[in-house]
Amino acid sequence: MTFLSRRRPAFWADIRFVIGIVLVALSIAGVWLIVSSAGRTTPVLQASRTIVQGEALVSADFQVVEVGLGQLTTGYLAPQDLEPGMVASRTLTEGELVPTTALGEAESSRTTTIVVESSTGIPAGVAAGTMVELWQAPPREDGRSYDAPRILVGDVIISSVVEAEGMLDSDATTVEVVIDRADVADVLAAITGGSVLSVVPVGSTP
Q1: What pTM was estimated for this model as a whole?
Q2: Which domain holds residue 123?
Q3: For residues 168 and 47, what is the distance between their CA atoms, to the nearest angstrom?
Q4: What is the pLDDT of residues 151-177, one digit of tens each?
Q5: What is the Cα–Cα distance from 74 to 7, expressed in whole angstroms?
Q6: How far is CA 88 from CA 65, 73, 144, 196, 200, in A?
Q7: Are residues 149 and 101 in the same domain?
C-alpha cells in the first residue's frame, strides 16, 4: 500500500499572505485618515481690516475663523500664537488669513511711520495699504517759487488718510505713511526746508 504525503505550503506563500493583509490594512487606514482630515477644521486668524507693513498686530484687528487646511494649517497664525511685539512684515489685506511668514518683531523692523501733508491732495481710491511715491518741489532761492518736482522717496505705503478740514486747506491732505527708517531724515529735511510734498500713486506722475 502506497501512502501519499501531503505537501506543506511553501514558506514564501505564507509571507506573501501576511504582506497582503498588512497592505490592505494600511490602505484602509490611509483612506480613513484622508476622510477624517477632510472634515477637520482648525481656528486661525483672519484680518478684519487692512494692516500695513510695520503696524503692530493686536487681537482687535482679527477674527477667528475655522478652516480646513490639513497640513497647511501650521503655516497660519492661530489665536494662541499672537504675542505682544509682533508687527506685520508686509501689508495684510482685509479678509486675508494671516500666514506666519507675514510676521516680524518690532525690534527688528526697518520701517516706521511719519505724517506728511500732500499739497495737491491724493487721488480717489488711495487708502491704507496703497503703494505711493513721495515727490518734492524744493523752494528756489528767491523764496517765491519752486523747482520742478522730483521723487523724494519711492515705495512708501499709506497707513491712514486724514482729509484736511476747513475751506483754506481744502486742497491739502494729511497722510500717515510707512517709510524705511533710512529715508526719514531726507523727508524731515524736505519738510523743514520748505519743500512742497505730493503723494503720488506708483505708476502715475504728479
Answers
A1: 0.64
A2: 110-201
A3: 38
A4: 999 889 999 887 655 444 456 788 999
A5: 57
A6: 19, 19, 43, 31, 24
A7: no
